[in-house]
């Protein structure tokens, strides 16, 4: 794939597990980027912390620094205590809904 083209990710269908308030959503959007539509939260692996990846409404992954991805993951896990560390999640910013997703969608996160 040419360097100037960004890959697109087909965002998975999922099962809703919770929702958050608009203030939290605005904080996450401000931290990530204005065009962020979905944040995918990886499952924790072998004691490694979770990471997050941000996507726009078209499913294109947004380029964010690793430290910011780590911060986004911490914010989400703090807002939703009790998440299964072995599951991956997606947070839809337009609705504030958090849902489980298949782990293969977050391997690059």
The helical percent reads 10-25%
Helix count equals: 2
Give start-end ranges of low-pLDDT stretches.
1-7, 105-109
**Could you give the count of β-strands?**
5
* Order of adjacent strands in the largest pleated sheet: 1-5-4-2-3
Derived from helix and strand composition plus strand pairing, the structural class reads alpha+beta
Shape: globular
Helix-strand string: EHEEHEE
DSSP strand (E) fraction? 15-25%
Main beta sheet strand tally, sense and closure: 5 strands, antiparallel
Rounded average pLDDT: 80
Radius of gyration of CA atoms, rounded to a whole number: 13 Å
How would you explain this protein's 3D organization?
- The protein has 109 residues and is of the alpha+beta class.
- The protein has one domain (15-106).
- Helices cover 22% and strands 21% of the residues.
- It contains 2 helices and 5 strands.
- A 5-stranded antiparallel sheet has the order 1-5-4-2-3.
- A hairpin with a 4-residue loop joins strand 4 and strand 5 (97-101).
- The longest helix has 14 residues, at 66-79.
- It is globular, with a radius of gyration of 13 Å.
- The two termini are 20 Å apart.
- The model is unreliable at 1-7 and 105-109 (pLDDT under 50).
